[in-house]
Design a protein that fits this description.
heterodimer; A: 561 residues; mainly alpha; B: 266 residues; alpha/beta; eight-stranded mixed β-sheet; 10 helices
Chain lengths: 561, 266
């Protein structure tokens, strides 16, 4: 290599060239399809949503490609690639090149998407603020992944918070949000002035991120560490102080449960607690909230455990949350426990984590709403419930809804166990891509429909597909139960779990599914087609085949096959 | 274990198939209605057929406490208006006459033969009146369930203009909300055929505002009914405007009574 700039560029390109080319190819193909269907109003809506989904996925992938670190501890949660410190280059250049390349890459993806995907649809995407926003988001991302090599928890927390802010922050550039939502949150200044402040903020964050990164990478290059490890130690101290363990374990199962709990049990509650603090403290200090703002804040809070469970669940499904390596370490693989017991411990840890999280959310939300919220909008919702449901039903519905969100959160946590414990990286990456695709599609679809408010009452364009839903769902239930029977039969034959435990899990499945069905029947007692569709959907929600499959794949992983 | 798992698969699969078949059978279908297709739910057998109507933004499922019961003694039809829920958008303006034309075409294409008992709830009241005026030979009876009444709406717009939900956007879009005054005027001009008529008024106040408005609401219904001395007026204090949800039995009873009297005449 002739220069360090080329060397770094080559390394990043070499690692991600397939993905980079694939991203541009996908955008190009979507652009070509949109060009072919341009002017066809029937396809325009679908093409627009698909365009957003592909653009967001390509941007995600680009961010991931620039996760430019080197694992110093337990795999991937490392620091700036320390072997680059040997290069005869100033630290400022070491920091600047990846940031510059990354910024150029995300801008290329955005501009390619805006031009190739949306111009054929006659839609002109804004240019200035999204470009600035993407550069800002990217530099913040680089700053976080380089700045906290001492504390993986702090890094994860900062990444989660930054992701939440980045995922929602762009909405504050939309004119109707500036004019509508801000006034509801108590902002009384002019929208133009607010937008100017936003631009100034964006312009400052890039240099600030570079400065902080430079400072931290410089310290790492000179072997200086900060006391940030105390953050992890603090968590350890809390675990030891409040969950002490002085007696020997009664069984191997109990020991493995304890190990899993200490390793991953507190991640979801800590993440949600951070979101609660980040949401409730500023809204409490900002003074009285409007009824709609109260409802908005509560909706976000109730949604956050579900969304976080989707993300954290991807890591939870691996043998070690903090390790990018999916193969079971020999130390763990030879433990005198069956794979069935190991997976059961993980399922129980996820359940405990979910219970703790929702307990926290419900308690803090109740206190916050009582102190700082406005009940008017909640009261209006209750009045609407009164329109359709009796007094007993009105009380039973929220109780069942709480059980439903507990089950859903737990499902998201344990959903990927069969793939994550298999030790197959390709499967794991594909499963993550699929999950990302589903969620981004859902997100883009919801935003698109809310942007076209009159479309909220439209089902006519999808009705021909809805007609096939009962058969599709019935097929899914049959496939699921058949696969579950096969998996659990194998588990039983290989004596991975006692029969009593297998029957207990089936009992739990029936109970959890029954609670979901109860909610559906109570909510839609008279609309037979909708009720039956949702009952079928409920039968697919609670994992049945996956835990059995997870036991089988883990056994293969442990044996190294 | 083998037997347990086999039984489980058999039980879950059977349940899934039964639920899917039942859902498929109950799923409303899209029926051609001229330039668009309307989502219609048609169940039961027996003449006269009963056709349920309401304001566009409300879907056909609002009738699901009434329609299955009515289907025990007559053919019962509920549908979505064009442009809402499962029905494709139709020509504009979306006034009562256009709604009636589409319903008429859809009923014919769905092979639902007259005579009909028209049941109009809320703003469905003016709609079924306009339908009855346009196709009098199809109509054997009318049941109005807490219907919107043009006299009351005029009074409301003068005394409580802030309640008005019609925005410039609706007017430009010429959707049902934007065309509501056009529809009300069409209802006012309609000459109803000489068929049995029943009207149910919900008088239970749901908040402070309805407490003030309800006497006017009742008065508007009574004034309008003066033109139809043989009409039956039922006033309930157990329900407000939610009578279809809260007291479906009242609607079912009114429809049954009317169907029986029509059958006796035949």
């Amino acid at each position: 290599m002739r220069s360090p700039a080329l060397a770094i560029a080559w390394e990043i390109w070499h690692r991600n060239r397939m993905g980079g080319v694939a991203s541009l190819a996908v955008i190009g193909t979507a652009g070509l399809i949109n060009w072919l269907v341009r002017g066809n109003s029937r396809w325009a809506g679908l093409a627009e949503v698909t365009g957003y989904v592909l653009l967001v996925l390509a941007l995600f992938f680009t961010f991931g490609g620039f996760h430019f670190t080197e694992g110093r501890r337990k795999g991937g949660f490392g620091s700036f690639p320390f072997r680059l410190f040997n290069m005869p280059v100033a630290t400022s250049w070491l920091v600047a090149f990846p940031m510059l390349y990354g910024s150029v890459a995300v801008l290329t993806i955005y501009l390619a998407g805006a031009w190739l995907i949306f111009v054929p649809l006659g839609k002109a995407l804004p240019m200035v603020w999204p470009c600035l926003y993407l550069i800002c988001a990217f530099t913040q991302f680089q700053m976080i992944i380089w700045s906290f090599p001492e504390s993986r928890y702090l890094k994860l927390l900062c990444l989660s918070l930054a992701a939440a802010v980045i995922a929602l922050g762009w909405m504050f550039f939309l004119p109707h949000i500036i004019e509508g939502t801000l006034s509801e949150l108590g902002y009384t200044g002019s929208p133009a002035l607010f937008k100017r402040y936003l631009f100034i903020g964006l312009a400052l964050t890039g240099p600030a991120a570079f400065g902080i990164s430079l400072y931290r990478v410089h310290q790492q290059r000179h072997g200086v560490t900060l006391g940030l490890r105390h953050f992890d130690l603090g968590r350890e101290w809390i675990s030891r102080r409040f969950l002490p363990r002085s007696r020997p374990f009664r069984s191997g199962t109990q020991a493995i449960f304890w190990q899993e709990w200490r390793q991953t049990g507190s991640i979801l509650p800590i993440g949600v607690a951070a979101i609660l603090a980040m949401t409730f403290v500023p809204t409490y200090l900002s003074g009285p909230l409007t009824p709609r703002a109260t409802l908005g804040v509560l909706s976000w809070i109730f949604l956050s455990p579900l969304l976080l469970a989707v993300i954290i669940g991807r890591g939870f499904s691996k043998p070690d949350f903090w390790n990018q390596e999916l193969n079971m370490t020999p130390f763990n693989a030879i433990r005198p426990l069956t794979s069935g017991q190991w997976v059961t411990a993980k399922l129980k840890v996820a359940a405990g984590s979910v219970l703790l999280t929702w307990g926290l959310v419900l308690y803090v939300s109740f206190v916050w709403t009582t102190w700082a919220g406005d009940f008017e909008e909640l009261d209006r919702l209750f009045q609407q419930l009164m329109f359709h449901y009796s007094a007993q039903e009105r009380w039973l519905l929220p109780v069942l809804a709480i059980f439903a969100v507990l089950i859903l959160t737990w499902r998201f946590m344990v959903n990927g166990l069969a793939v994550g414990l298999s030790g197959r990286k390709r499967w794991y990456q594909f499963s993550n891509l699929l999950t990302g695709l589903v969620w981004v599609t859902l997100f883009a679809g919801v935003i698109w429909r809310s942007d076209h408010s009159d479309h909220n009452l439209h089902l006519y364009d999808v009705w021909q597909w809805i007609i096939w839903l009962p058969l599709a769902l019935a097929g899914a239930v049959i496939a699921k139960s058949t696969l579950a029977a096969w998996a659990w039969y194998q588990v039983d034959q290989r004596q991975m779990l006692s029969r009593h435990s297998i029957y207990t899990y089936f009992g739990f499945w029936v109970l959890a599914t029954g609670l979901l069905v109860g909610l559906v029947v109570l909510a839609f007692p008279h609309t037979v087609w909708l009720r039956n569709l949702l009952i079928l959907l409920s039968m697919t929600v609670v994992p049945l085949a996956r835990p059995g499959m997870a036991m089988l794949t883990l056994a293969k992983n442990r044996s190294g096959s | 274990m083998k037997l347990f798992l086999a039984l489980f698969v058999f039980g879950a699969s059977t349940l899934a198939v039964v639920l899917a078949l039942s859902a498929s059978g109950e799923l409303p279908r899209q029926v051609p209605a001229g330039q668009n297709r309307l989502r219609m739910h048609i169940i039961g057998e027996g003449s006269p057929a009963v056709v349920f109507d309401c304001f566009g933004p409300a879907n056909l499922e609002i009738w699901n406490r009434v329609q299955p019961e009515v289907a025990r003694f007559a053919r019962a039809v509920a549908y979505d208006h064009g442009g809402y829920w499962g029905s494709e958008p139709g020509p504009k303006p979306r006034d009562a006459r256009q709604i009636a034309r589409e319903l008429h075409a859809a009923l014919r294409n769905a092979n639902v033969r007259p005579p009909f008992i028209l049941v109009g709830y809320s703003f469905g009241g003016p709609y079924v009146r306009v339908y009855a005026g346009m196709y009098p030979e199809d109509v054997a009876g009318i049941v109005l369930v807490d219907p919107t009444q043009e006299g009351f709406m005029t009074w409301l717009s003068q005394h409580y203009p802030e309640i008005n939900r019609v925005t410039e956007k609706h007017r430009i879009a010429q959707d049902e909300l934007g065309s509501q005054w056009l529809s009300l005027n069409q209802a006012r001009e309609t000459q109803l055929p000489d068929v049995p008529l029943a009207l149910i008024t919900g008088m239970k106040p749901q908040d402070m505002l309805t407490r003030k408005l309800l006497p006017r609401w009742l008065e508007a219904h009574r004034n309008w009914l003066k033109e139809f001395p043989r009409a039956k007026h039922v006033v309930t204090t157990n329900s407000g405007h939610d009578v279809v949800f809260n007291e479906p039995g009242l609607v079912i009873h009114a429809v049954r009574e009317m169907a029986d009297s029509i059958r006796k005449k035949e």
